[in-house]
Amino acid sequence: MPTPPVTELTDRARAIFRLVVEGYLDSGQPVGSKVLAGEGGLNLSPASIRSVLADLEALGLLAAPHTSAGRMPTESGLRLFVDGMMQVAEPTREERKAIERRLAEPGPIEQALEQTSAILSDISGAAGMVMVPRLEPRLAQFSLVNLGQGRLLAILVGEDGAIENRVVELGEGVSPQLLEQASNYITARLAGRTLPEAAAMMRSEIASGRSQLDDASRSLVERGLAVWSEDAAQRPVLIVRGQAKLLDDTALSDLERVRSLLDDLENKQSVAELLESAREAEATRIFIGSENRLFALSGSSVIASPYRDREGRVVGVLGVIGPTRLNYARVVPMVDFTARSLGKLIG
Questions:
Q1: Which residues contact 224 (CB under 8 A, 6 or more apart)?
Q2: Quick check: 188 pLDDT over 70?
Q3: Closest CA to 47 of 56, 57, 36, 58
Q4: Contact yes or no for 186/198 (Cβ under 8 A)
Q5: Spatial distance between the Cα atoms of 287 and 294, rounded to a whole number of angstroms
Q6: Looking at residues 268-283, what average pLDDT do you find?
Q7: How many CB atoms lie within 10 A of CB 137?
Q8: d(CA 16, CA 22)
């Protein structure tokens, strides 16, 4: 059943729905009609409240885990609340200064990234995650060397002096002239750019017919850069801190879910791929429960935000993961502020 928009709920239904969600996020427990009747401002009998709760349950926004146990929001209900009703609590001046002070502690950038993950864990009461910025050197020189038997050695020299090699499988019949032509083209035309920038410019020139390369040389150029770009994308480095905080008192009643979550966190490649999906987002993204395939079984939520350098380029992603009852109103703006602060530090 599609989730109805907030505007389709009556004022009474919105008020009761908000109280149920906020009560659940605060305690982790279902909220009953007697508790709601005691909340100020409702002025409704328990029977009237139960009627509204039944309507919200029929809409798929609330669920009753056990008979007479009260109601709790479903994943659809949480999504409706987060997107249409949540009032975020911006970090206080003291909280902002505390985050900036911890990030600015002397040490290498790796230490700042570790500190960021710990900060995210502290502010969320869950696990903090930081994906390390990709190493994207700017090209200074690019060469292709024939190894024989249809194999080439791609040699990349970065502006920082770093040298990396990759073997490219291309096929037989590659002449020294073709290798030289392709190498010179990349070095002369694409020097000073990162690999993704170089690959994009190369494809644009070839597609528009502005490239002077013949078909064979184009293939060499394209294959050489493609190997480098793919390799860079397949080497995410993920820092996770605070897994122990997932084992709180409420988790003891649902150990299978927590065990599934901890197993998922061990698969850092998959977690990094999930965070990558937030890389191009304009703002903080929230994945609730089964909305993401990786954590569907553990019923967990992920709040993720890209962090950018001073030129506005995305260099990494950070976030938190925990139970669906995360304090979204507090955690979302804190994750966003931490991302902006880390971006300023990295430059």
A1: 142, 144, 152, 154, 168, 182, 186
A2: yes
A3: 36
A4: yes
A5: 11
A6: 79
A7: 18
A8: 10
Give the pLDDT of residue 212.
61
Contact 320, 77 (CB under 8 A): no
At residue 164's C-alpha, the angle toward residues 161 and 169, to 5°, is: 150
DSSP 56-82: HHHTTSEE-SSTTS-BEE-HHHHHHHH
Given a contact cutoff of 8 angstroms between Cβ atoms, the answer to whether 20 and 71 are in contact is: yes
Q: Which residues contact 15 (CB under 8 A, 6 or more apart)?
A: 41, 42
Q: Report the C-alpha dihedral over residues 238, 241, 243, 249, rounded to 10 degrees.
A: -150
Residue 61: per-residue pLDDT: 96
User: What integer pLDDT is reported at residue 149 of this predicted model?
Assistant: 77
Burial (CB count <10 Å: 0-12, 13-18, 19+), residue 45: exposed
CA-CA distances (angstroms) from residue 120 to 180, 240, 243, 248? 50, 10, 12, 17
Of 47-61, 161-175, 269-283, the poorest mean pLDDT is in: 161-175
Per-residue confidence band for 224, with pLDDT thresholds at 50, 70 and 90: low
Rg of the Cα trace of the chain? 26
